[in-house]
Design brief:
Length: 143
C-alpha cells in the first residue's frame, strides 16, 4: 500500500528524538482558528501540536518530515464529531416521545438539552483516545 498517494500528508518539524520516537511539531491550519470542534481534533490547545511518531526514517532534530494519520482513524473521528450528536439528538427525541410518551414539544426541548450531554460523552471518548494512543501517525518521507 502506497500511503503517500492515498492519504493527505501532514508536514511537521522534528523537535525532539527520544528512544525510537520522534516528536513532531505541527502548526495548525489557518482554518482551525475559528473551528468550534477544537477539543476533539488532532490539533489541540495551542497553535502547535506535537505528535509522538515512531522514527522509521531516522529523522534528526530539526528535520522537516511528511507523515500521515490513517484514514480509518480520520473517518472514525469525523463520525464521532459530526454523526454521533445527530444520532444522540434523534434517539433522545424518539425515546422521550415514543417510549415515555412525553409531549412532542417537551421531547424536542429534551433532545436539544441532551446535546451538551453528548459533548461530555465525546470528551470522555477523546480522553480514552489520548490514553490508549489510538492515533498512530506514520512517517512518509523527509522533506
Amino acid at each position: 500500500m502506497n500511503l503517500e498517494n492515498e492519504i493527505t500528508n501532514e508536514i511537521g518539524i522534528v523537535v525532539n528524538i527520544k528512544n525510537n520516537f520522534a516528536f513532531v511539531e505541527v502548526e495548525k491550519d489557518k482554518n482551525c482558528t475559528n473551528c468550534q470542534l477544537k477539543s476533539l481534533c488532532f490539533y489541540k490547545g495551542n497553535e502547535k501540536t506535537i505528535f509522538k511518531i515512531i522514527n522509521s526514517l531516522n529523522a534528526k532534530k530539526g528535520d522537516k518530515i511528511s507523515f500521515v494519520i490513517e484514514p480509518k482513524i480520520r473517518i472514525f473521528i469525523s463520525f464521532l464529531i459530526y454523526i454521533v450528536p445527530i444520532i444522540f439528538l434523534i434517539t433522545t427525541y424518539s425515546v422521550c416521545k415514543y417510549i415515555f410518551n412525553i409531549s412532542e414539544n417537551l421531547s424536542i426541548i429534551l433532545a436539544i438539552i441532551s446535546i451538551p450531554l453528548c459533548y461530555f460523552i465525546l470528551k470522555f471518548i477523546d480522553k480514552l483516545f489520548a490514553r490508549k494512543k489510538l492515533i498512530n501517525p506514520k512517517m512518509i518521507r523527509k522533506i
